[in-house]
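SEVERITY: medium
COMPONENT: batch folding queue
REPORTER: lab tech (J.R.)

DESCRIPTION
The queue accepted two submissions in a row. Attaching both inputs and their returned structure tokens so the on-call engineer can compare them side by side.

ATTACHMENT 1
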Amino acid sequence: MAKILVVDDAAFMRMRASKLLTDNGYEVIEAENGLDAVEKYKAERPDLVIMDITMPVMDGIEAVKAIKSYDPDAIIIMCSALGQQAMVINAVRAGAKDFIVKPFQPDRILATVKKFLA
């Protein structure tokens, strides 16, 4: 069973993504900001990370850089609202593999997760 780290400062978004992934057979770990995500990544070594961009303490782009410096093979998918294209480009340059637009469509999340964990 693949382990996925879901990172978002909004508890509702974490809960929604976690339920979707758990219902589809994935083990889920949650983090509420980038710093928490980096610590949990190092402790848990998830197979994939779904990361929000705009968060307090440490944003998603800085967290991607920190995780990628720790594990260059980390698979990170960014989650962002429409209108954050510049941030998405920065996240991809930092090492993110893909992005999902919020509010996310369940089918899009599952298809993206399956694509990278295949």
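ATTACHMENT 2
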Amino acid sequence: MKSFLLVPVATLALTGCAWVQLTSEGENVSLAGVDVIGNCERIGRATAKTLGKIVAIERGGGRLQEELLTLARNEAGRMDGNTVVPESLIKDGEQDFGVYNCPR
């Protein structure tokens, strides 16, 4: 009986964890809308992917979006970009971002 309760309790504990940490490179990258990047140089694309489900339970949209943005910011920082712009909707825990170098 105790093992039956272990899975729901473990699932709840895991959903409260921060899976993705912002790197020092990612700290210098901001999120922008497509309307702000007119004077920016596009340097590439980052595809961020994280878990959309944990033990067949859909994850909250806010937390999922936050993790995808953090992953995209980290990747953009590695690419020497300073701005990311979402280019797709989230699908199966994955989202595409344009990476730009914008004047500051």
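NOTES FROM REPORTER
The CA atoms of residues 8 and 55 lie 9 Å apart.
No errors were logged for either attachment.
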